[in-house]
Design brief:
- The chain has six helices and no strands.
- Helix content is 70%, strand content 0%.
- α1 runs antiparallel to α3 and α5 packs antiparallel against α6.
- By secondary structure, the protein is mainly alpha-helical.
- This is IMS import disulfide relay-system CHCH-CHCH-like Cx9C domain-containing protein.
Length: 104
């Protein structure tokens, strides 16, 4: 299963709610959507696969967050950063037995 599929599987609701909030609140999303952002963070930090993606793609994730912070009034301009992060996430090696040692 691809890393992004796992992210979507375990945190789809949180990701969709946060994304919608950002899209509908272009000038106030930092404040308006903060609680939803925390829900996404809590969800993603609790799954080992997502932890590995965040670890392996931290540079891309930090760049995306910086872009959002620097472009609070136009978050859509950060689409290239999202694409780079998602591209990285797809390359994360999830085949090692760190994930499910009892299944290997």
């Amino acid at each position: 299963m691809a890393a992004l599929d796992i992210t979507t599987k375990y945190c789809r609701k949180e990701m969709e709610e946060y994304g919608s909030c950002v899209a509908f609140n272009p000038s106030t999303w930092q404040q308006t959507c903060h609680e939803l952002k925390m829900k996404v963070a809590q969800c993603t930090s609790s799954h080992p696969v997502i932890q590995k993606i965040r670890q392996d793609c931290s540079k891309e994730f930090v760049a995306f967050e910086r872009c959002l912070r620097d472009n609070q009034d136009k978050p859509a301009s950060c689409s290239p950063h999202v694409d780079r992060f998602l591209g990285c996430a797809e390359t994360v090696d999830l085949s090692s037995n760190w994930l499910c040692p009892t299944l290997m």
